[in-house]
Design brief:
Elements lengths: L1 E8 L2 E8 L3 E4 L11 H10 L7 H4 L6 E6 L8 H14 L7 E8 L6 H8 L1 H6 L1 E6 L6 E6 L5 E5 H4 L3 E7 L2 E2 L3 E2 L13 H8 L24 H13 L3 E7 L5 E7 L3 H14 E3 L4 E7 L9 H13 L1 E10 L9 H4 L7 H10 L3 H15 L2 E4 L5 H6 L3 E3 L2 H12 L6 E4 L6 E3 L4
Parallel strand pairs: 3-19, 4-5, 4-9, 5-6, 9-12, 14-20, 15-16, 15-19, 16-17, 17-18
Antiparallel strand pairs: 1-2, 7-8, 10-11, 12-13
Helix pairs in contact: 1-3, 3-4, 10-13, 12-13
């Protein structure tokens, strides 16, 4: 029997008909109920926190409070929907808006415009509190606070280091390097100096030059992850007073707010993320057919790398992946696409070791994964040259991609995994 599957591609949907007996599994996130009363959920989280006294006992009248908040690259966090409720809880604890500063955790990302502050945090928050931006290259804005056990010199934004109380905010999702986002990442890279970011992120590369990326820094892995452990050590130097992090439904709505101790509350949030988006699979398969879920998750290859990364996790070592990525802005962002100009992966790695960037790491990892498992990308015809430059195989239709996959596999009785929302869902093989 044949079965039809519908997959997102940009603003449209494509369908593929597959032999039902060959489809071993369809990987989808867990359905969860979305939060409808956000202020009530925030109040409940900060009043009954995890491994911490309630917020009103942690914060006392007269404190100067710094809230670290993610930048526009994390707009999916939806600060404008919950930040006013958090400010109200601080007011109730005796902290007026005039004693609250929001620190934009840019890391090394570009600064926000005033309009972008409103877009990310909402007009109400922008009107109520002071907003400053922590931009890593501005060395004069950072103070030295110590050196980690791994030798990384730690510089923290002075507005954070000198605050009476620091509250971490952010969203928790799977992260391809640090295991999970959120939590300690508000501090590193968020409000850390450039040298500190470079020193920490270098742990994502293999100890041996020429061996590419570290096997210890990957999605969902925190135990034995040098990058995560160093980040945590840096956060402990600051010892933040409180944390409020968000977890989402597969549709991008709020599923849970976790609050309390800066590490333990975050860890509870990671468990929820794994419950929703970590999908146990029966086995790895010969072929994985994956979609990011459509626009904007497949707007460019950089965004699409989350999908290819997750798809590879469900494929056998001698398997093939087909990934639907429209990539209407294939050359964006330039600080990612430019990394494919290097003649070899070795040269790409050497350049990354000299000046680490996250886009450069993703470009190196993408190239290495393409060598391991053939990537067939269903994309717009005009993207063919760049897709091939990136080490992938370009196809303009699913039918063309399936024909290429069969040729690569050398048979027709191959097993299949379908991943309709692979940008968010992480397949957990049986050994996990």
């Amino acid at each position: 029997m044949q079965k039809k599957y519908t997959l997102g591609f940009g603003a449209i949907e494509l369908t593929v008909t597959l032999p039902e007996k060959q489809v071993i599994q369809v990987v989808e996130g867990k359905s969860v109920k979305a939060i409808t009363d956000i202020p009530a959920a925030i109040k409940a989280a900060v009043t009954n926190p995890i491994d911490s006294p309630p917020l009103q006992q942690v914060i006392t009248s007269g404190d100067k409070v710094a809230i670290i908040a993610s930048d526009i690259t994390r707009q999916w966090i939806k600060y404008h929907e919950f930040l006013p409720a958090l400010l109200n809880e601080l007011n109730a604890a005796g902290i007026p808006d005039s004693d609250i500063t929001l620190v934009v955790s840019l890391g090394a990302h570009r600064r926000h415009t005033d309009e972008e502050n409103i877009l990310v945090y909402g007009a109400e928050a922008v009107d109520r509190i002071q907003i400053i931006q922590s931009y890593a290259p501005d060395a004069e804005d950072f103070v030295f606070v110590g050196t980690t056990s791994r030798g990384v010199q730690v510089y923290i934004n002075k507005h954070v280091a000198h605050a009476d109380k620091v509250i971490l905010t952010g969203g928790i999702v799977y992260h391809p390097m640090a295991g999970f986002a959120g939590g300690r990442k508000a501090i590193l890279p968020g409000v850390s100096g450039y040298a500190t970011i470079q020193g920490n992120h270098s742990f994502c590369l293999h100890d041996v030059v020429g061996q590419g990326i570290s096997p210890h820094c990957s999605s969902g892995k925190i135990e034995g992850n040098n990058m995560h452990e160093d980040m945590t050590e840096i956060a402990a130097m600051l010892n933040p007073s409180f944390l409020v992090n968000t977890v989402y439904t597969p549709e991008g709505k709020f599923a849970r707010f976790v609050a309390g101790h800066w590490y333990n509350a975050w860890l509870e949030g990671c468990k929820t993320v794994k419950e929703i988006f970590g999908v146990p699979i029966k086995a790895k398969t010969d072929l994985v057919i994956a979609s990011a879920g459509g626009f904007p998750k497949d707007m460019n290859l950089y965004q699409g790398s989350k999908t290819t990364d997750n798809a590879v996790m469900a494929a056998k070592d001698d398997g093939v992946i087909i990934v639907l990525l429209e990539c209407r802005d294939i050359m964006e962002p330039p600080d990612f696409s430019g990394w494919f100009n290097y003649e070899s992966l070795y040269e790409r790695e050497l350049a990354l070791r000299k000046a680490f960037t996250v886009p450069g790491f993703i470009a190196l990892k993408t190239g290495l994964m393409c060598k391991k498992v053939p990537h067939i990308i269903v994309t717009l015809p005009e993207n063919k040259a760049f897709v091939e430059k990136a080490g992938m195989i370009a196809a303009t239709t699913l039918e063309e991609a399936l024909a290429i996959a069969e040729q690569k596999l050398g048979r027709k009785d191959y097993t299949i995994t379908v991943m309709p929302h692979a940008a968010n869902t992480v397949p957990l093989p049986p050994e996990n």
